[in-house]
Task: structure prediction
Amino acid sequence: MKTFSMNQLERYPAYLKYFKELRDQGVEYVSSPRIGAKLGYSEEQVRKDLQCVSVSAGRPKRGRSVEQLIEDLETFLGYRDVSGAIVIGVGHLGGALMNFPSFNEMGLEILAGFDVSPSLIGQKIGGKEVYDYKRLHDLMPKLNAHIAIICVPASIAQSVVDSAVCCGAKGIWNFAPTHLDVPEGVVVETVDLASSLAVLSHRMNEANAKKR
Amino acid sequence: MKTFSMNQLERYPAYLKYFKELRDQGVEYVSSPRIGAKLGYSEEQVRKDLQCVSVSAGRPKRGRSVEQLIEDLETFLGYRDVSGAIVIGVGHLGGALMNFPSFNEMGLEILAGFDVSPSLIGQKIGGKEVYDYKRLHDLMPKLNAHIAIICVPASIAQSVVDSAVCCGAKGIWNFAPTHLDVPEGVVVETVDLASSLAVLSHRMNEANAKKR
DNA sequence: GAATTTTCGGTAATGGTTTACCGATACATG
DNA sequence: CATGTATCGGTAAACCATTACCGAAAATTC
Result:
């Protein structure tokens, strides 16, 4: 197995999803050009991406085994070892994530939510209990959760993260629009809607300018 | 103004957010090293990033004018011209986006939602009406919405996007976990949670492996 | 007002990612 | 069984992004 870049890593889930579709359709083999056409990548890029994660080689004129690719990618992405996570901040977004059905397929299990709002504490959202945020120190270690999903306002996100790290969080999935500092050994991944929107707007302007 | 990359574009919203915080604190000037320390970038990168969007030069020993930076970035990011958008699929996620308060600050105005569920049609979510999806062709042009925010299941996302494009959508903000094909002149930006999670998991594994 | 410090802008070097190309190989076809 | 074609893996080139460096300039200090 070769080395791979962050960009490649970001593409792998899309490959896996497509391969599962193919499997459901009964397709046994798939070629790089076909994959590229479907997902919007060049065939060279597809080949290079898959070479990094695939144990077996592709066969000329046929392509690669769909079943094998799925196995390789699931193993590579860690979808077969489940990590426990908690959601901190069960507002609209936090609640939506707790209701998200497909995290389980990705090796992520949301175990519980935490919030300060009395109207939420004790409720079940997406089948998981919402606990009082005060009980984080007590419950997070017991739940054996290593990922904290941060859905609180930006203004308090840093202090919430500090608490989560203190309770044993090794990964922070940050949905608050702010940069977070964490100690060595803890990882932060931020989902930044503002960035995504900036890219969309910019490309829309570009497309519009080109037209004229 | 120089050329800039997509990566830089993604960083600009974070800069802007920080500069607004500084303004609220009454800070008038800010230097690149200070910005970098706060946001986790190198000072060289900050300088290069800001040189691309800033009209005025920074001053040695002082830095750049916070007020000027905010103006430059807001103009550059298009936060001063508002685009109308609609949400298609008012489930947990779509509803959360309709309730999101800060899109207005980013030049995005959500005008309405569309869904097929009778229990949602006619409701108000985040102060905006939810209409029957059947009325998309009728209403989308009247609303003058150019962005469609896709929050439907992946299986129907492509057909929904085709309809939205047909109704005049020039930009697609895609929250469905699937690749979408659109005609020339239309832009798609996908928010891919699976990718983000893959990066988080991978970096957690790396951090964990390093520790030993 | 001279010396020191901080930050600046610009350019060069580095590192990383994507694209392009090429000979080899397995399958399909006649 | 020979020929043609689609796809493969690998390597080289091109492209883009980040990092490092340096002389200059504005503010501060003495």
